[in-house]
What does this fold into?
Amino acid sequence: QASIDSQALGPGERAMDSAADAADAPAATGADAAGDDASAKPTGAEAVISFTTKLPEPYVVPEDELVVPGTLMRYGLSEVVNRLLSLDKPVPFDFVVNGEYLRTSVFAYLESHRLSSEKVITLEYVLALSEPEQDQVDEVPDWIAAVTPVQAFPSQCYVAVACDGTARLYSGSQSRLVVRLTDNVLTSVAALPTNGGKGCQVVAGCKDGSLRCCAIQHGGDGSSAVAGPVASLSAPGCQQGVQAVALKEDGSLIASGGWDLDIHLWNTESSLFAKPDAAGAGAKRAAAGGAGAVPKFSLQGHSQVVTGLDFGAPSRFPFTLVSCSWDSSVRVWDIAAACCVCNWTVARAVTSVSMSPIMPPQLATSHEDGHVSLWDIRAPPHPTKQGAVSLDATAGLPLMSAQAPHRRLVSKVAWCPEDAMRLASVSHDGHLCILDPRSPKMPLQSLRLGKTGPDPTKLLCATWLARDALAVGGSDGKVVRVSLNSGKLPTGEES
It folds into this structure.
Protein backbone atom coordinates (compact mmCIF):
# COMPACT_ATOMS: atom_id res chain seq x y z
CA GLN A 1 0.00 0.00 0.00
CA ALA A 2 1.32 3.44 -0.93
CA SER A 3 2.61 5.62 1.89
CA ILE A 4 1.46 9.20 2.42
CA ASP A 5 3.10 12.37 3.70
CA SER A 6 2.08 12.42 7.37
CA GLN A 7 2.74 16.17 7.58
CA ALA A 8 -0.74 16.63 6.14
CA LEU A 9 -2.22 15.74 9.54
CA GLY A 10 -1.73 16.99 13.05
CA PRO A 11 -0.02 14.58 15.49
CA GLY A 12 -3.27 13.81 17.30
CA GLU A 13 -5.14 12.91 14.13
CA ARG A 14 -2.24 10.86 12.79
CA ALA A 15 -2.36 8.88 16.02
CA MET A 16 -6.13 8.40 15.79
CA ASP A 17 -5.91 7.41 12.13
CA SER A 18 -3.05 5.01 12.81
CA ALA A 19 -4.98 3.38 15.64
CA ALA A 20 -8.13 3.16 13.56
CA ASP A 21 -6.33 1.76 10.55
CA ALA A 22 -4.31 -0.67 12.67
CA ALA A 23 -7.52 -2.10 14.07
CA ASP A 24 -8.43 -3.10 10.53
CA ALA A 25 -4.94 -4.07 9.35
CA PRO A 26 -6.09 -7.38 7.82
CA ALA A 27 -8.77 -5.62 5.82
CA ALA A 28 -7.90 -4.38 2.34
CA THR A 29 -8.35 -0.81 1.17
CA GLY A 30 -8.82 0.79 -2.21
CA ALA A 31 -9.33 -1.54 -5.12
CA ASP A 32 -8.72 -4.61 -2.94
CA ALA A 33 -11.37 -3.45 -0.49
CA ALA A 34 -13.85 -3.20 -3.33
CA GLY A 35 -13.24 -6.80 -4.28
CA ASP A 36 -14.43 -8.29 -7.53
CA ASP A 37 -17.88 -6.80 -7.01
CA ALA A 38 -17.67 -3.07 -6.20
CA SER A 39 -21.40 -2.94 -5.54
CA ALA A 40 -21.28 -5.69 -2.90
CA LYS A 41 -23.03 -4.88 0.36
CA PRO A 42 -20.78 -4.05 3.32
CA THR A 43 -20.37 -6.57 6.10
CA GLY A 44 -19.27 -6.11 9.69
CA ALA A 45 -17.12 -2.99 10.06
CA GLU A 46 -17.31 -1.87 6.43
CA ALA A 47 -18.82 1.13 4.65
CA VAL A 48 -19.61 2.05 1.06
CA ILE A 49 -17.96 5.17 -0.36
CA SER A 50 -17.50 6.89 -3.69
CA PHE A 51 -14.79 9.43 -4.52
CA THR A 52 -15.16 12.61 -6.54
CA THR A 53 -12.89 15.60 -7.08
CA LYS A 54 -12.47 18.90 -8.91
CA LEU A 55 -8.74 18.36 -9.35
CA PRO A 56 -7.39 18.09 -12.91
CA GLU A 57 -6.33 14.90 -14.63
CA PRO A 58 -4.48 12.67 -13.81
CA TYR A 59 -5.73 13.13 -10.23
CA VAL A 60 -9.24 11.84 -10.91
CA VAL A 61 -10.31 8.34 -9.89
CA PRO A 62 -13.40 6.53 -11.22
CA GLU A 63 -16.54 7.37 -9.27
CA ASP A 64 -17.19 3.71 -8.52
CA GLU A 65 -18.65 2.49 -5.25
CA LEU A 66 -16.00 0.99 -2.97
CA VAL A 67 -16.37 -1.07 0.19
CA VAL A 68 -13.78 0.03 2.75
CA PRO A 69 -13.17 -0.42 6.50
CA GLY A 70 -15.54 1.90 8.35
CA THR A 71 -12.79 2.87 10.80
CA LEU A 72 -10.83 4.70 8.10
CA MET A 73 -10.23 8.38 8.72
CA ARG A 74 -8.72 10.92 6.34
CA TYR A 75 -5.19 9.51 6.57
CA GLY A 76 -6.34 6.03 5.58
CA LEU A 77 -8.70 7.43 2.94
CA SER A 78 -5.83 9.44 1.49
CA GLU A 79 -3.84 6.22 1.14
CA VAL A 80 -6.78 4.66 -0.70
CA VAL A 81 -6.89 7.53 -3.21
CA ASN A 82 -3.13 7.43 -3.70
CA ARG A 83 -3.28 3.71 -4.40
CA LEU A 84 -6.08 4.18 -6.92
CA LEU A 85 -4.09 6.95 -8.64
CA SER A 86 -0.85 4.90 -8.64
CA LEU A 87 1.19 8.07 -8.08
CA ASP A 88 4.99 7.91 -8.07
CA LYS A 89 5.04 10.41 -5.20
CA PRO A 90 2.15 10.23 -2.70
CA VAL A 91 0.00 13.35 -2.32
CA PRO A 92 -1.85 14.17 0.93
CA PHE A 93 -5.59 14.65 0.48
CA ASP A 94 -8.42 15.90 2.65
CA PHE A 95 -12.07 14.92 2.30
CA VAL A 96 -15.33 16.87 2.15
CA VAL A 97 -18.72 15.25 2.63
CA ASN A 98 -21.97 17.20 2.27
CA GLY A 99 -20.12 20.50 2.40
CA GLU A 100 -18.02 19.76 5.51
CA TYR A 101 -14.58 18.28 6.10
CA LEU A 102 -14.59 14.73 7.40
CA ARG A 103 -12.98 14.85 10.85
CA THR A 104 -14.06 11.43 12.15
CA SER A 105 -14.02 7.87 10.90
CA VAL A 106 -16.49 6.93 8.19
CA PHE A 107 -18.49 4.90 10.71
CA ALA A 108 -18.61 7.77 13.20
CA TYR A 109 -19.96 9.99 10.44
CA LEU A 110 -22.67 7.46 9.60
CA GLU A 111 -23.67 7.12 13.24
CA SER A 112 -23.72 10.86 13.93
CA HIS A 113 -26.01 11.39 10.93
CA ARG A 114 -28.08 8.26 11.68
CA LEU A 115 -27.30 6.68 8.34
CA SER A 116 -27.22 3.01 7.44
CA SER A 117 -23.87 1.37 6.73
CA GLU A 118 -25.29 0.57 3.30
CA LYS A 119 -25.65 4.27 2.53
CA VAL A 120 -23.14 5.34 -0.13
CA ILE A 121 -21.07 8.29 1.10
CA THR A 122 -19.69 10.53 -1.63
CA LEU A 123 -16.33 11.97 -0.57
CA GLU A 124 -14.80 14.88 -2.45
CA TYR A 125 -11.02 14.79 -2.08
CA VAL A 126 -9.04 18.03 -2.11
CA LEU A 127 -5.38 18.86 -1.58
CA ALA A 128 -4.50 18.95 2.11
CA LEU A 129 -2.48 21.60 3.89
CA SER A 130 1.05 20.47 4.63
CA GLU A 131 3.54 21.82 7.16
CA PRO A 132 3.83 25.61 6.69
CA GLU A 133 7.11 27.47 6.44
CA GLN A 134 8.03 30.46 8.61
CA ASP A 135 10.42 33.17 7.50
CA GLN A 136 11.28 35.93 9.97
CA VAL A 137 11.44 39.09 7.90
CA ASP A 138 12.32 41.64 10.57
CA GLU A 139 12.53 42.31 14.30
CA VAL A 140 11.87 45.81 15.59
CA PRO A 141 12.21 47.23 19.12
CA ASP A 142 8.45 47.50 19.74
CA TRP A 143 5.19 45.67 19.09
CA ILE A 144 3.96 45.22 15.51
CA ALA A 145 0.45 46.67 15.69
CA ALA A 146 -0.88 46.19 12.15
CA VAL A 147 0.14 44.99 8.70
CA THR A 148 -1.42 45.42 5.26
CA PRO A 149 -0.57 44.72 1.59
CA VAL A 150 0.16 47.74 -0.61
CA GLN A 151 -0.46 46.19 -4.04
CA ALA A 152 -3.36 44.49 -5.76
CA PHE A 153 -3.70 40.86 -4.70
CA PRO A 154 -1.38 38.96 -4.74
CA SER A 155 0.95 41.53 -3.23
CA GLN A 156 4.72 41.28 -3.08
CA CYS A 157 5.04 44.44 -0.97
CA TYR A 158 3.42 45.16 2.38
CA VAL A 159 3.61 47.69 5.21
CA ALA A 160 3.74 47.05 8.96
CA VAL A 161 3.30 49.76 11.59
CA ALA A 162 4.85 49.47 15.04
CA CYS A 163 4.11 50.97 18.42
CA ASP A 164 7.34 52.99 18.14
CA GLY A 165 5.65 55.25 15.56
CA THR A 166 7.33 53.83 12.45
CA ALA A 167 5.99 52.27 9.27
CA ARG A 168 8.13 49.68 7.53
CA LEU A 169 7.88 48.60 3.92
CA TYR A 170 8.76 45.01 3.00
CA SER A 171 9.11 43.19 -0.29
CA GLY A 172 8.87 39.43 0.09
CA SER A 173 11.29 38.70 2.93
CA GLN A 174 13.31 41.91 2.53
CA SER A 175 13.01 45.12 4.56
CA ARG A 176 13.02 48.06 2.12
CA LEU A 177 12.12 51.27 3.96
CA VAL A 178 11.53 52.68 7.44
CA VAL A 179 9.39 55.82 7.77
CA ARG A 180 8.80 57.64 11.05
CA LEU A 181 5.18 58.74 11.00
CA THR A 182 4.91 59.99 14.58
CA ASP A 183 6.51 59.93 18.01
CA ASN A 184 3.31 58.40 19.39
CA VAL A 185 2.03 54.81 19.30
CA LEU A 186 0.59 53.55 16.00
CA THR A 187 -2.33 51.14 16.27
CA SER A 188 -3.72 50.42 12.80
CA VAL A 189 -3.00 50.83 9.10
CA ALA A 190 -4.66 50.79 5.68
CA ALA A 191 -3.12 51.17 2.23
CA LEU A 192 -4.24 51.71 -1.35
CA PRO A 193 -2.16 50.87 -4.45
CA THR A 194 -1.27 53.73 -6.81
CA ASN A 195 0.78 54.24 -9.96
CA GLY A 196 0.00 50.80 -11.36
CA GLY A 197 1.19 48.99 -8.25
CA LYS A 198 4.47 50.91 -8.06
CA GLY A 199 3.32 53.15 -5.23
CA CYS A 200 0.77 53.35 -2.44
CA GLN A 201 -1.08 55.65 -0.09
CA VAL A 202 -0.72 54.70 3.58
CA VAL A 203 -3.00 55.80 6.43
CA ALA A 204 -2.11 54.87 10.01
CA GLY A 205 -4.16 55.33 13.18
CA CYS A 206 -2.46 56.78 16.24
CA LYS A 207 -3.03 56.44 19.97
CA ASP A 208 -3.33 60.24 20.32
CA GLY A 209 -6.50 60.18 18.18
CA SER A 210 -4.89 61.39 14.95
CA LEU A 211 -4.26 59.83 11.55
CA ARG A 212 -0.94 59.89 9.73
CA CYS A 213 -1.00 59.92 5.91
CA CYS A 214 1.94 59.27 3.61
CA ALA A 215 2.66 58.34 -0.01
CA ILE A 216 5.32 55.73 -0.78
CA GLN A 217 6.86 55.02 -4.16
CA HIS A 218 8.45 51.56 -4.25
CA GLY A 219 8.78 50.68 -7.93
CA GLY A 220 6.81 47.47 -7.57
CA ASP A 221 9.56 45.47 -5.89
CA GLY A 222 10.57 47.87 -3.11
CA SER A 223 14.17 48.14 -4.29
CA SER A 224 14.02 51.93 -4.72
CA ALA A 225 11.44 52.82 -2.07
CA VAL A 226 11.06 56.42 -0.97
CA ALA A 227 8.39 58.13 1.16
CA GLY A 228 6.77 61.53 0.82
CA PRO A 229 6.01 63.98 3.63
CA VAL A 230 3.69 62.92 6.44
CA ALA A 231 0.33 64.67 6.86
CA SER A 232 -1.82 64.58 9.98
CA LEU A 233 -5.61 64.49 10.41
CA SER A 234 -7.44 64.99 13.71
CA ALA A 235 -11.13 65.24 14.46
CA PRO A 236 -11.90 68.32 16.59
CA GLY A 237 -11.77 67.44 20.27
CA CYS A 238 -10.74 63.84 19.62
CA GLN A 239 -7.74 62.83 21.72
CA GLN A 240 -8.60 59.18 22.27
CA GLY A 241 -6.86 56.41 20.40
CA VAL A 242 -7.77 55.30 16.89
CA GLN A 243 -8.19 51.53 16.69
CA ALA A 244 -9.30 51.03 13.07
CA VAL A 245 -8.77 52.74 9.72
CA ALA A 246 -9.99 52.00 6.20
CA LEU A 247 -9.50 53.43 2.70
CA LYS A 248 -12.29 53.33 0.14
CA GLU A 249 -11.41 51.28 -2.93
CA ASP A 250 -11.57 54.31 -5.25
CA GLY A 251 -9.40 56.35 -2.88
CA SER A 252 -12.05 59.00 -2.24
CA LEU A 253 -12.65 58.44 1.49
CA ILE A 254 -10.77 57.60 4.67
CA ALA A 255 -12.61 56.13 7.67
CA SER A 256 -11.36 55.97 11.25
CA GLY A 257 -12.80 54.76 14.53
CA GLY A 258 -11.66 54.06 18.05
CA TRP A 259 -12.05 54.95 21.68
CA ASP A 260 -14.13 58.10 21.14
CA LEU A 261 -16.88 55.70 19.88
CA ASP A 262 -17.52 57.71 16.69
CA ILE A 263 -16.59 56.84 13.11
CA HIS A 264 -15.09 59.75 11.19
CA LEU A 265 -15.01 59.95 7.39
CA TRP A 266 -12.62 62.24 5.57
CA ASN A 267 -12.32 63.34 1.97
CA THR A 268 -9.02 62.19 0.50
CA GLU A 269 -7.14 65.25 -0.74
CA SER A 270 -3.97 65.22 -2.81
CA SER A 271 -2.16 67.24 -0.13
CA LEU A 272 -2.47 64.30 2.25
CA PHE A 273 -0.35 62.11 -0.02
CA ALA A 274 2.27 64.45 -1.49
CA LYS A 275 4.77 62.68 -3.72
CA PRO A 276 8.33 62.16 -2.52
CA ASP A 277 10.64 64.99 -3.58
CA ALA A 278 14.14 64.82 -4.94
CA ALA A 279 15.58 64.84 -1.42
CA GLY A 280 14.73 61.15 -1.20
CA ALA A 281 14.19 58.82 1.72
CA GLY A 282 16.70 60.52 3.99
CA ALA A 283 14.99 63.91 3.96
CA LYS A 284 13.17 65.21 7.00
CA ARG A 285 9.45 64.69 6.50
CA ALA A 286 7.75 67.83 7.74
CA ALA A 287 3.97 67.62 8.10
CA ALA A 288 2.18 68.56 4.89
CA GLY A 289 -1.54 68.86 4.26
CA GLY A 290 -4.33 68.01 6.65
CA ALA A 291 -3.84 71.15 8.75
CA GLY A 292 -7.23 72.45 9.83
CA ALA A 293 -9.09 69.68 7.98
CA VAL A 294 -12.26 68.38 9.59
CA PRO A 295 -14.17 65.15 8.89
CA LYS A 296 -16.68 65.19 6.05
CA PHE A 297 -19.10 63.70 8.58
CA SER A 298 -19.11 61.49 11.66
CA LEU A 299 -21.24 58.42 12.37
CA GLN A 300 -22.51 57.80 15.88
CA GLY A 301 -24.10 54.70 17.35
CA HIS A 302 -21.52 52.40 18.92
CA SER A 303 -21.45 52.44 22.71
CA GLN A 304 -17.95 51.01 23.10
CA VAL A 305 -14.64 51.20 21.24
CA VAL A 306 -14.81 50.72 17.46
CA THR A 307 -12.43 47.86 16.61
CA GLY A 308 -12.86 47.26 12.88
CA LEU A 309 -13.86 49.04 9.66
CA ASP A 310 -14.34 47.68 6.14
CA PHE A 311 -15.61 49.55 3.08
CA GLY A 312 -17.88 47.29 1.07
CA ALA A 313 -16.70 46.41 -2.43
CA PRO A 314 -18.57 48.78 -4.82
CA SER A 315 -19.55 45.88 -7.08
CA ARG A 316 -21.28 44.03 -4.21
CA PHE A 317 -22.04 46.55 -1.45
CA PRO A 318 -22.22 50.03 -3.01
CA PHE A 319 -22.00 53.04 -0.65
CA THR A 320 -21.43 50.75 2.34
CA LEU A 321 -19.16 50.83 5.39
CA VAL A 322 -19.15 47.96 7.91
CA SER A 323 -18.00 48.53 11.50
CA CYS A 324 -17.64 46.36 14.59
CA SER A 325 -17.22 47.14 18.26
CA TRP A 326 -16.72 45.85 21.78
CA ASP A 327 -20.43 46.62 22.25
CA SER A 328 -21.12 43.20 20.63
CA SER A 329 -22.51 44.65 17.43
CA VAL A 330 -21.78 44.85 13.73
CA ARG A 331 -23.21 47.90 12.00
CA VAL A 332 -23.68 48.73 8.33
CA TRP A 333 -23.60 52.40 7.35
CA ASP A 334 -24.92 54.02 4.19
CA ILE A 335 -22.12 56.48 3.48
CA ALA A 336 -24.19 58.30 0.86
CA ALA A 337 -26.92 59.09 3.40
CA ALA A 338 -24.54 59.13 6.42
CA CYS A 339 -26.76 56.85 8.48
CA CYS A 340 -26.86 53.37 10.00
CA VAL A 341 -28.96 50.92 7.99
CA CYS A 342 -28.22 47.67 9.88
CA ASN A 343 -27.43 47.03 13.53
CA TRP A 344 -26.68 43.35 14.11
CA THR A 345 -26.13 42.04 17.63
CA VAL A 346 -23.64 39.17 17.70
CA ALA A 347 -23.61 38.20 21.42
CA ARG A 348 -19.86 38.67 21.95
CA ALA A 349 -17.51 41.65 21.93
CA VAL A 350 -16.13 41.95 18.39
CA THR A 351 -12.42 42.58 17.79
CA SER A 352 -12.35 42.55 13.96
CA VAL A 353 -14.55 41.98 10.93
CA SER A 354 -13.89 40.68 7.40
CA MET A 355 -16.11 40.31 4.33
CA SER A 356 -16.07 37.24 2.08
CA PRO A 357 -14.63 37.81 -1.41
CA ILE A 358 -17.53 36.31 -3.38
CA MET A 359 -21.30 36.16 -3.50
CA PRO A 360 -23.48 35.17 -1.74
CA PRO A 361 -22.15 37.57 0.90
CA GLN A 362 -20.77 36.30 4.18
CA LEU A 363 -19.14 37.95 7.18
CA ALA A 364 -16.47 36.80 9.63
CA THR A 365 -16.04 38.24 13.12
CA SER A 366 -13.41 37.60 15.78
CA HIS A 367 -14.05 37.83 19.50
CA GLU A 368 -12.39 38.41 22.85
CA ASP A 369 -13.14 34.89 24.13
CA GLY A 370 -11.21 33.01 21.43
CA HIS A 371 -14.16 32.50 19.09
CA VAL A 372 -14.39 33.14 15.36
CA SER A 373 -17.91 33.35 13.93
CA LEU A 374 -19.11 33.11 10.33
CA TRP A 375 -22.35 34.80 9.34
CA ASP A 376 -24.61 34.59 6.30
CA ILE A 377 -25.76 38.02 5.08
CA ARG A 378 -29.38 37.75 3.97
CA ALA A 379 -30.22 40.80 1.88
CA PRO A 380 -32.36 41.57 -1.20
CA PRO A 381 -30.81 42.37 -4.60
CA HIS A 382 -29.77 45.97 -5.13
CA PRO A 383 -32.49 47.86 -7.05
CA THR A 384 -30.14 49.48 -9.57
CA LYS A 385 -26.78 47.67 -9.47
CA GLN A 386 -26.80 44.19 -10.97
CA GLY A 387 -24.99 41.57 -8.91
CA ALA A 388 -25.01 43.70 -5.75
CA VAL A 389 -27.13 43.41 -2.63
CA SER A 390 -29.04 46.10 -0.79
CA LEU A 391 -28.07 46.24 2.87
CA ASP A 392 -30.95 47.89 4.71
CA ALA A 393 -33.17 47.35 7.73
CA THR A 394 -34.62 44.18 6.16
CA ALA A 395 -31.22 42.46 5.91
CA GLY A 396 -30.52 39.62 8.33
CA LEU A 397 -27.36 38.05 9.72
CA PRO A 398 -28.00 34.40 10.69
CA LEU A 399 -25.09 32.53 12.24
CA MET A 400 -23.44 29.91 10.00
CA SER A 401 -20.90 28.56 12.47
CA ALA A 402 -18.91 29.51 15.55
CA GLN A 403 -15.76 27.80 16.72
CA ALA A 404 -13.11 28.54 19.34
CA PRO A 405 -9.76 27.93 17.63
CA HIS A 406 -7.98 30.10 20.21
CA ARG A 407 -7.72 30.23 24.00
CA ARG A 408 -7.35 33.99 24.31
CA LEU A 409 -8.54 37.15 22.59
CA VAL A 410 -8.56 36.89 18.79
CA SER A 411 -6.86 40.00 17.45
CA LYS A 412 -7.72 39.61 13.78
CA VAL A 413 -9.68 37.49 11.34
CA ALA A 414 -9.11 37.96 7.61
CA TRP A 415 -10.74 36.34 4.60
CA CYS A 416 -8.41 35.49 1.73
CA PRO A 417 -9.29 37.94 -1.09
CA GLU A 418 -9.31 35.23 -3.76
CA ASP A 419 -10.47 32.14 -1.86
CA ALA A 420 -13.83 32.04 -0.09
CA MET A 421 -12.79 28.76 1.57
CA ARG A 422 -9.78 30.21 3.36
CA LEU A 423 -9.56 32.50 6.39
CA ALA A 424 -6.81 33.30 8.87
CA SER A 425 -7.03 34.31 12.52
CA VAL A 426 -4.38 35.33 15.06
CA SER A 427 -4.65 35.58 18.80
CA HIS A 428 -3.01 36.58 22.06
CA ASP A 429 -2.43 32.84 22.58
CA GLY A 430 0.36 33.01 19.98
CA HIS A 431 -1.34 30.90 17.31
CA LEU A 432 -2.09 31.53 13.66
CA CYS A 433 -5.09 29.44 12.58
CA ILE A 434 -6.18 28.65 9.03
CA LEU A 435 -9.96 28.27 8.87
CA ASP A 436 -12.39 26.97 6.28
CA PRO A 437 -16.21 27.34 6.29
CA ARG A 438 -16.37 23.62 5.49
CA SER A 439 -14.66 22.84 8.80
CA PRO A 440 -17.03 24.56 11.27
CA LYS A 441 -15.76 22.86 14.43
CA MET A 442 -11.98 23.06 14.16
CA PRO A 443 -9.31 24.92 12.15
CA LEU A 444 -7.58 23.26 9.23
CA GLN A 445 -4.26 24.19 10.76
CA SER A 446 -2.94 25.84 13.92
CA LEU A 447 0.59 27.21 13.89
CA ARG A 448 2.48 28.46 16.94
CA LEU A 449 4.52 31.62 16.34
CA GLY A 450 6.89 33.23 18.82
CA LYS A 451 7.40 32.49 22.49
CA THR A 452 5.54 29.66 24.22
CA GLY A 453 4.66 29.12 27.88
CA PRO A 454 2.21 30.85 30.24
CA ASP A 455 3.00 34.25 28.70
CA PRO A 456 3.14 33.56 24.94
CA THR A 457 3.81 36.06 22.20
CA LYS A 458 0.63 38.01 21.51
CA LEU A 459 -0.11 37.93 17.79
CA LEU A 460 -1.76 41.24 16.95
CA CYS A 461 -2.15 41.33 13.18
CA ALA A 462 -2.19 39.25 10.01
CA THR A 463 -2.85 39.89 6.34
CA TRP A 464 -3.00 37.77 3.20
CA LEU A 465 -0.28 38.46 0.62
CA ALA A 466 -1.22 35.57 -1.69
CA ARG A 467 -3.47 32.53 -1.50
CA ASP A 468 -0.70 30.62 0.27
CA ALA A 469 1.18 33.44 1.99
CA LEU A 470 0.54 35.70 4.98
CA ALA A 471 2.39 38.35 6.96
CA VAL A 472 1.98 38.22 10.75
CA GLY A 473 3.16 40.52 13.55
CA GLY A 474 2.95 40.63 17.32
CA SER A 475 4.26 41.66 20.70
CA ASP A 476 7.76 40.28 20.10
CA GLY A 477 8.38 42.91 17.40
CA LYS A 478 8.85 40.27 14.71
CA VAL A 479 7.36 40.38 11.23
CA VAL A 480 6.95 36.81 10.00
CA ARG A 481 6.06 35.66 6.50
CA VAL A 482 4.19 32.34 6.55
CA SER A 483 3.91 30.07 3.49
CA LEU A 484 1.15 27.47 3.73
CA ASN A 485 2.51 25.00 1.16
CA SER A 486 -0.90 23.93 -0.06
CA GLY A 487 -2.50 23.39 -3.42
CA LYS A 488 0.72 22.09 -4.99
CA LEU A 489 0.52 19.05 -7.24
CA PRO A 490 3.60 17.06 -8.31
CA THR A 491 3.14 18.26 -11.90
CA GLY A 492 3.22 21.90 -10.77
CA GLU A 493 -0.50 22.34 -11.43
CA GLU A 494 -2.56 24.01 -8.73
CA SER A 495 -6.05 23.29 -7.53
Remarks:
- The longest helix spans residues 11-23.
- The radius of gyration is 25 Å.
